[in-house]
Every structure is written in C-alpha cells, then in structure tokens.
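This is your field. Please look over both lines of this record.
***
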Amino acid sequence: MELFQYPYMQRALIAALVIGLAAPALGIYLVQRRLALIGDGVGHVALTGVGAGLLLNSSPVLVAVVAATLGAVAIELVRARGRTSGDLALALLFYGGIAGGVMLVGLSDATSASLNAYLFGSLTTISPQDLTTIVVLGAAILVTMLALRPALFAVCHDEEYARVAGLPVRALNLLLAVGTAVTVTIAMRAVGVLLISALMVVPVATAQQVTRGFRATMTAAMALGLFAAGSGVWVAANADTAPGASVVLLAIASFLVVAVAAAGWRELRRRRTRAGAPTPEPHEHEVVLS
C-alpha cells in the first residue's frame, strides 16, 4: 500500500475506479442489444484518431474523441437503416479503424512506447488534466445511464414497443453510440483501446450468472467493475504488471469463479429437489412392484 502514497498511483486508482463504474453501466445496454463487441470497433476508430493527432502534433485524445464519436454514430445510422447488418458494420469499423490507425501512426514520428500507451493503457502516466477529463466524462456517462435507465432499457429490449410508446428511439440510440465513444476514449489511458470492451462486457456477463432483473444486474455489474478496477491496480502496483491487463484478467477470473459457483449451486439445488421430491402414490389400476 506504500505505493499509493505517490500522487501518480492515486491518480491511477481514481481513474480506474471511475472507469470501472462507468464502463459496465454503459455495457449492459450494449449486451442487451447484442452489440457486445462495438467497444472494440469504436476503439479501433479511436486508434485512427490517435494516429491523426500524433501526425498533426495535436492532442491525440481530443482527436480520438471526435473520430470515435463519428465512427459510433456512423455504425448506428447504418444499423438503423437496415442496409447492412450490425455484425458487418462492426467488421467494417474494425478493419477500417485499425488500418487507418496503423497507417497514420507509421507516418508520424511516434515511438512504439507512445502507441502502446493507447493500445494497452498506461495508468501510471495519467496527468492531473487527464484525470479531470476522465472523472468529468465518466461521471457524465454514469449519471446519464442511470437517469435514463427506463427509456434506454425499453429501446434496447424492444425498439418497436419503445417507438409505439412515444420514446425518441433514434435519439436514444445515438446517445448510446456517443456514450460508447466517450467511454472508450476516456479509458484509452487506463486499460487501452484493445481492452476496454472487456471491461464493458465481462462484469455484465458475470452479474447475469447470479442476478435476476435489469436493475439488479446493472448494480452487480458496476460493483464487479469497481472490484476488478481497484484490485487490478493493486495487483499491478505490487506485481509490476500492466494495469490494464491486470484489470481485465481479474474481471475474467471473477467471471469464471462466479460461473463455476453458480453452476455448482444450480446442480446442488437440482439434486436436493430430486432427493426431497415425494414419491407419487400409485393409482388404483397401477400395480406396485415390491
């Protein structure tokens, strides 16, 4: 715990905790819409923004925000028009984003170390300005996802019902797209564009093993994200490992533990039910064999 006396480790921990809360709060809607991998696609587009920022000697994060937002809005518009399936639109986003990012980074004077900081995260290099951006945008995402939970759930569960109910379906879908882009961008320095999708999805998948109901699942997913983020930073600080990878591996480990425990509990209940089930009495025309 001595390492957390240093300001850079305190900033790393705060940033990880904020993202650990915000990412599952948004990710549960993406899982509900079967767009669990959209974070990866938006992350690849954000990488193109990072490359453009490095090439133009401007802020990579700000350019990445613009690029990721445009990419997320584009995929939502394509999906909504129905001309291209969601999976195909995600594939186009994957390939185009990574190709553009690699090309632009190659044209710039950036080193591999600076690129890795965005690909896999670099919590210990977060500046006070970066922390302020992460906290403000992360809080905005968290408040929005919680405040609009009924409307967003209705849209993700059944768009036709939401449209008949008078909800602004197109605006809410675009809000989710922009929220995804913002979450991916603020998480670049924490867990990296290649790993942020896991923090959006894995805590939600873990919570679904043991909870019933959307609200309970969302609460449990946020708690699991908070646990994975805080524990991951602590493990990284003591074992000298990559913080982003440590956070994601702990989230996956939590999923495996909960999945095995839930399966064991269901099997135990099944056996108890069978053992305690009363033997049906035979009807008058049935013969009992002794």
User: Anything to note?
Assistant: The radius of gyration is 23 Å.
